[in-house]
Design goal:
Blueprint (H helix, E strand, L loop, with lengths): L5 E5 L4 H17 L2 E7 L10 H7 L7 H14 L5 E7 L3 H12 L3 E6 L10 H8 L4 E5 L19 E6 L4 H16 L2 E9 L5 H14 L8 E7 L2 H12 L3 E5 L5 H6 L3 H8 L4 E4 L3
Parallel strand pairs: 1-2, 1-4, 2-3, 4-5, 6-7, 6-9, 7-8, 9-10
Antiparallel strand pairs: 5-10
Length: 286
């Protein structure tokens, strides 16, 4: 993980986007990053089959440029003085505009909220950003309780905060694990590596998986990494263990998937985007 220097946070002035903004402010403050708050005036409904739900979620969210500028001035005035921040207002299809802006800014992290609904004929904005964004994406699901945010600052005498990192030993998962190790070197967190083996594979497979997890851990982090091997459904165990650990957030690799594969195969990353009880830090496959 290179230094986080630019954090991009889309907002629509809803309660969920305020939660995402709070996470983005915390990350920016801890890493000394420049924070870009972004509002897009053309938040287009997803299509007839979900239009009624979009209207309920976004009722009153469409904001004029003048009102957005006034909201941004108030937002910027309330930010900590230790955070360098600016605002951008754009217009156009929200996902392509956000992806283009992230590329133009050379963003190191995008922080956004997910309203959580998706269907076969509509992929949510959060899903599209995770699919195509070149940098990591930190998401918060609507209804999550962030408590003391991510707790990245820490306090003297406090135990490192638990962070869950799942891996299937694939290349994309390996990149996420390395990213999590770099986060652990920079932040007061304790990592918990998790691998889930298919049901019925036997104790030998589980022991071998545990050995592979041990081999992943660098020597400088040996005292701050726990290992877990469970058997069954990956998404179920990730959710259950994150709750049991009271994980502050989780780090997950994002597999490259084309549209057809996404709709005919189960995707653990998509499930966790919508089901995780804590924020999820997605690391791109490449």
């Amino acid at each position: 993980m290179s230094q986080i220097r630019v954090v991009l946070c889309p907002v629509d002035f809803s309660p969920l986007s305020r939660e995402a903004q709070a996470l983005a402010v915390e990350v920016s403050e801890v890493f000394g990053a420049r924070l870009i708050l972004h509002y897009n005036r053309s938040d287009v409904p997803p299509g007839l089959t979900r239009a009624w739900e979009w209207k309920e979620v976004h009722r009153g969210a469409e904001t004029s440029s003048a009102k957005a500028e006034a909201e941004f001035r108030q937002m910027l005035a309330q930010l900590p003085r230790t955070v360098s921040a600016e605002a951008r207002i754009t217009a156009g299809p929200v996902a392509p505009v956000l992806l283009r802006l992230a590329e133009q800014l050379s963003a190191d992290l995008v922080v956004l909220g997910s309203h959580g609904w998706s269907s076969a004929d509509h992929a949510s904005v959060a899903e599209r950003i995770i699919d195509h964004c070149a940098c990591p994406v930190l998401t918060i699901q609507e209804g999550q309780q962030t408590g003391a945010l991510l707790g990245l600052k820490g306090s003297p005498g406090e135990e490192p905060l638990p962070v869950l990192v799942s891996t299937d030993f694939s290349g994309s998962a390996g990149r996420a694990v390395e990213y999590a190790f770099d986060l652990a070197r920079a932040l007061p967190i304790r990592l918990h590596l998790l691998h889930v083996v298919p049901r019925g594979r036997g104790e030998a497979v589980a022991l071998a998986a545990h050995g592979r997890l041990e081999q992943l851990v660098p020597g400088d982090l040996a005292e701050r990494v726990g290992m877990h091997v469970l058997e069954g459904d990956p998404a179920e165990h990730i959710v259950e263990l994150s709750r049991a650990l009271c994980a502050r957030f989780m780090v997950m690799g994002e597999h490259t998937r084309d549209l057809w594969r996404r709709f005919v195969t189960r995707d653990t990353a998509r499930e966790l985007l919508h089901r995780a009880p804590c924020p999820v830090w997605f690391v791109p496959a490449a």
